């Protein structure tokens, strides 16, 4: 793996677009000043990757934070997602336009299918292929797709997904899925890298905290990157946003990566992609 040494770097997607290693997640961030302040702080600190979704109900605030920052749009990697109730061909085209309007942007860098809604995600993907061909999206991908979902989608598509955003942390590694995505040129990305904070209630990281003189959060995020996984920790706290980016001046030993891998117990904080009802 190439050296991961600065916040400005990223993994290169199959179509040549660079996706920054580290992004700011905005799930459950309030659409008012909370999310716009967080986005502005992150961008002015050097982040270039912002992740939102229509269901988060904060795209307007994200767009406001982008406009209030000192960063040119061309330097950013902005992501949103089509929600389940908006899936389908025409519905997705409409949902995408609405997201752009709320964000007040002319294009997205990445657009994802949020969940694999049976009987709908193929038509949703067809609409995303159209938007990609029209250069309204620089890259297209999926979220919460397991191997069989990916196989099914790729068997009926012209453009294969470039990203798969999954719940990922030491208690839910899913190495076989990571390997499958790698084999097929699909960039793996982590949501909920801290198990919505539950990881901090467990002392499994204490020896590594002492060894590397880093926080548990920094160790987990560095673990993500060394696994080749893009990560998007959510925070609205200015100092935590800064601290989450302080992960480029050290490297975990292979033995410590293997230790964190060994903690995998298939534990989810979110729904199972094979069993969700929304």
TrEMBL record:
The keyword NADP applies. The active site is at residue 56. Gene3D superfamilies: NADP-dependent oxidoreductase domain. The record marks 81 as: Lowers pKa of active site Tyr. SUPFAM superfamilies: NAD(P)-linked oxidoreductase (SSF51430). Residues 22-264 form the NADP-dependent oxidoreductase domain. InterPro entries: AKR, Aldo/ket_reductase_CS, NAD(P)_OxRdtase_dom_sf, NADP_OxRdtase_dom. GO terms for molecular function: oxidoreductase activity, acting on the CH-OH group of donors, NAD or NADP as acceptor. Transmembrane segments: none annotated. Substrate binds at residue 114. The keyword NADP applies. Keywords: NADP, Oxidoreductase. Belongs to the aldo/keto reductase family. This is Aldo/keto reductase. It comes from Aggregatimonas sangjinii.
């Amino acid at each position: 793996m190439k050296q991961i040494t600065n916040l400005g770097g990223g993994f290169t997607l199959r179509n040549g677009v660079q996706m920054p290693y580290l992004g700011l997640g905005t799930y459950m961030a309030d659409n008012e000043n909370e999310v716009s302040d967080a986005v502005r702080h992150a961008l002015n600190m050097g982040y270039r990757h912002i992740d939102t979704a229509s269901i988060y109900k904060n795209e307007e605030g994200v767009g406001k934070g982008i406009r209030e920052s000192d960063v040119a749009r061309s330097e950013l990697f902005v992501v949103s997602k089509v929600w389940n109730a908006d899936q389908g061909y025409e519905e997705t085209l409409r949902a995408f336009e609405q997201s752009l309007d709320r964000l007040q942007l002319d294009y997205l860098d990445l657009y994802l299918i949020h969940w694999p809604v049976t009987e709908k995600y193929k038509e949703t993907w067809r609409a995303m292929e159209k938007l990609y061909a029209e250069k309204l999206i620089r890259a297209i991908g999926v979220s919460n797709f397991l191997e069989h979902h990916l196989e099914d989608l790729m068997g009926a598509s012209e453009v294969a997904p470039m990203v798969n955003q999954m719940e990922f942390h030491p208690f839910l590694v899913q190495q076989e899925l990571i390997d499958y995505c790698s084999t097929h040129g699909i960039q793996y990305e982590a949501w909920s890298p801290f198990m919505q904070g539950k990881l901090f209630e467990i002392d499994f990281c204490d020896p590594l905290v002492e060894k590397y003189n880093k926080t548990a959060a920094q160790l987990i995020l560095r673990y993500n990157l060394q696994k080749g996984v893009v990560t998007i920790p959510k925070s609205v706290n200015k100092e935590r946003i800064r601290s989450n980016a302080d992960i480029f001046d050290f490297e975990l030993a292979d033995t410590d990566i293997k230790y964190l891998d060994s903690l995998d117990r298939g534990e989810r904080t979110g729904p199972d992609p094979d069993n969700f009802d929304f």
